[in-house]
Amino acid sequence: MDQFTSLISTIVRLAMRSLSLLALLLFSVVIHTTVSTPPPATVPNRTQPYLQPARSPRAIELLGPDGGKRTLKSFAEEYLTEYNGHLLTNDHLWHIERINDNEIALKSRNGLYIKHGWFDWGKTAVAANEWEMLTPVKNDDGSWSFKSRWNKWMSAEYTERGVHFITFESEKKRSEYWWLEPWY
């Protein structure tokens, strides 16, 4: 970059004396900026499953042969369920969608994603953006934990009237361990 800057300053000094050199200066600046500018990165539609095969053994283990169709059982032996006010539904069935080599999103069977919401509450979202991206971590006992981009762990610790609610906690304890089971 220093050579280019010194070349430009030399050409500018000469261009002050000649109009044709000024045209050459403008042409070289345009050529340099168009050649050195990388093309814009394309962002795939994150609401669709990642189409490339998983590269890491952990990702293969997490997604499994059925493409990530899982139930998530908490430390309290209860299944993660999308609450929608109905009884006797299949709202405990989840799709694990691979976003990139390190992150996933948890999508309910009804099409909503788990989101790290304000004040560390678990919320739902219709698309997988950065608030919905989680890094899966395999625990020593075979369970999985999920860490948000804000370094908080998806947890089933908070209970109200016998119901566990999703929160995101700073420490990874027993309530942040999830056992993945395939759909049957």
Automatic annotation (TrEMBL):
Record-linked Gene3D superfamilies: 2.80.10.50
UniProt name for this protein: Uncharacterized protein
A cellular component annotation (GO) from this entry: actin cytoskeleton
MF-aspect GO terms: actin filament binding
Coiled-coil intervals: none
Organism: Pristionchus pacificus
Biological-process GO terms, alphabetical: actin filament polymerization
